[in-house]
Amino acid sequence: MSDTLAQIDGLQVAFAGHDGALTPAVRGVSLTVRRGERLGIVGESGSGKSLTGRALLGLLPPEAKWSANALRFEGQDLLAMRPKARRRLCGTRMSMILQDPKYSLNPVMTVAQQMRETFVRQAPKQGRREIRERIVAALAAVHIRDPERVADAYPHELSGGMGQRVMIAMMVSAGPRLLVADEPTSALDVLVSMQVLSVLDEMIYRHDTGLVFISHDLPLVMSFCDRVAVMYGGRIVETCAARDLARATHPYTRGLLEANPPLENPPDELPTLRRDPAWLDEGAAR
Ligand SMILES: Nc1ncnc2c1ncn2[C@@H]1O[C@H](COP(=O)(O)OP(=O)(O)OP(=O)(O)O)[C@@H](O)[C@H]1O
Ligand SMILES: [Mg+2]
To answer: What residues does the ABC transporter domain cover (predicted)?
Structure first.
């Protein structure tokens, strides 16, 4: 079986402004995710990280104008797939933890009602009590302290960090082969972040899941991921092994790294991130 789990080739995403003119947001992104691999995507705000992840799942906003030469997952051509079959893949073999859990949880359903759908889809013959136990166990696995109470809560009753953990529990419990996690730990304190990362670790180990890990946290990506793609202005400007990121050569990546000064020996002044319009026109995958 091929080692390649998912592939994006030549993804373009644009949005129409008030005058109808298209503004490109993703400009020819190509990337591959292997089975069991953790691929980090870093880059400044607005560089196209979330849109790239969403395109793979078929979750681009309806107003997006997009095209790709190829989108493949487990050998299947996602572009040729019927919408119904594509939707069935989402939440089962491929899932996404969205950047803002507020928009991804259904406000009029309790946590347990939403999670039940995932479990029923996986094993339709399970009894209600068995499903309830699995829901509570999944919430406990992301270190939610009172999982019984949270299971019966509505999304507006949860804090941001709790909502994020509920999302993670929901997506991880489906045992996806591909998980796109968009800033999954940004609303969590350090301790809970570490616990959530260990939940992701276990999922990767158990299901050989390929993880696309979108984050602003370069030191975290360097330690948690195998490979890193750096995005700038809707393109991937550099891809390298995570352990080599500190030696990255692209001036934008260097700028990002220098914006994360070492704690032990901080410089007197933080450098300004330098941007050069010429980088926008460089090759899509350096
Ligand atoms: N629904 C939309 N309508 C118009 N423009 C959009 C829409 N969604 C995204 N964009 C634009 O596309 C660009 C890339 O967006 P994207 O969400 O992928 O950025 P990002 O790299 O994930 O940023 P962040 O780090 O802030 O999450 C941004 O400039 C954004 O303004
Ligand atoms: Mg984003």
So the answer is: 8-258
DSSP class per residue in 223-269 = HH-SEEEEEETTEEEEEEEGGGGGG--SHHHHHHHHTS--SSS--SS
In the chain, domain spans: 4-106+177-281
Nearest ligand by distance to the CA of 43: 1
Whether ligand 1 lies within 6 angstroms of the CB of 49 is answered as: yes
Question: What is the whole-number distance in angstroms between the Cα of residue 183 and the centre of ligand 2?
Answer: 7
Among 11, 26, 49, 66, the mutation site with the greatest number of ligand 1 atoms within 8 A of its Cβ is 49
Q: Which residues pair with 73 in a beta bridge?
A: 6, 76
pLDDT per residue as tens digits for the range 67-87: 999 999 999 999 999 989 998
Task: Say if domain 4-106+177-281 classifies as CATH 3.40.50.300.
Answer: yes
Residues 22-37 have pLDDT tens digits of 999 999 999 999 999 9
Nearest CA to ligand 1 atom 3: 15
